[in-house]
Amino acid sequence: MFRPLPFALFLCFLLAAPLRAGAEARPSRADLQRVLELHARSSVRVRGPQHAGPGIIVGADGQVLTAVAHVGPQSAQVEHAGNALTARVVLSSTVLQVAVVAGPQGAWPAAPVRLVPEGLAGRWVVGVLPGRKGQRDRPRATVAKSGPAPFFDVDLTLAPGSPLYDGDGRLVAVVVEKRGRGARALPLSAVKAELASADSP
């Protein structure tokens, strides 16, 4: 049985300095390599009663961000470093299509996080495309496109629950839906707002 973690504890992992406004350079090869290394360290697989898919560790105490389809009503399995651990659902939003689960407390390799309050449309983001038939995973940069608020769209074929990063390797969003050859994603600022409202009396 897990001791409930206050939302404030998770929110502290989302309190990072906002990105500077203005034009940003396309991520370099070195930037993409850094994203790939951080992704390999902090990505997990989340398995619910009906579906499974990717997730990303966002809190050093075991908080994992994923798509809502990958969790059950109260729990999910988090597969990381060869272990399958039971995690408690902290947030499950069908409106935003995201979930946060809390694994057993311990030392988890959380991804660095960056909030972008003004939105991500028009900014470079990086996703990691899974390798096929024994090939390695590939990081790819694309410019985020406007979508229905608070979502945005990317020309990357990624599964729901997949993380998106900025050029510095900081987590900025999570994919919530496949859309043809692209995907729809939710910025972390929207996740933070949802957690804050859920924690309000």
Summarize the SSE layout with pairings:
Blueprint: H1 7-14, H2 29-42, E1 43-47, E2 52-57, E3 63-67, E4 75-80, E5 83-93, E6 98-102, E7 124-129, E8 138-143, E9 145-146, E10 152-154, E11 163-165, E12 171-179, E13 182-187, H3 188-199
Antiparallel strand pairs: 1-2, 1-4, 2-3, 3-6, 4-5, 5-6, 7-8, 7-11, 9-10, 10-13, 11-12, 12-13
Helix pairs in contact: 1-3
Can you put this structure into words, describing what you see?
- With 201 residues, this protein is an alpha+beta fold.
- The protein contains three helices and 13 strands.
- Strands 8-7-11-12-13-10-9 form a seven-stranded antiparallel sheet. It has a six-stranded antiparallel beta barrel with strand order 1-2-3-6-5-4.
- The model is unreliable at 1-9 and 15-22 (pLDDT under 50).
- Keywords: Hydrolase, Protease, Signal.
- InterPro entries: Peptidase_S1_PA.
Distance between the termini: 25 Å
Task: Supply the helix-strand structural class.
Answer: alpha+beta
Helix content: 10-25%
Spatial shape: globular
Roughly what is the average pLDDT, rounded to an integer? 87
Question: In CATH's first tier, which class applies?
Answer: Mainly Beta
* Strand neighbour order, sheet with most strands: 8-7-11-12-13-10-9
Flag low-confidence runs: 1-9, 15-22
CATH topology: Thrombin, subunit H
Q: Kindly report the oligomeric state of this protein.
A: single chain
Number of distinct beta strands: 13
- The gyration radius over C-alpha positions equals 16 Å
Beta percentage is: 35-45%
CATH architecture: Beta Barrel
What's the tally of helices? 3
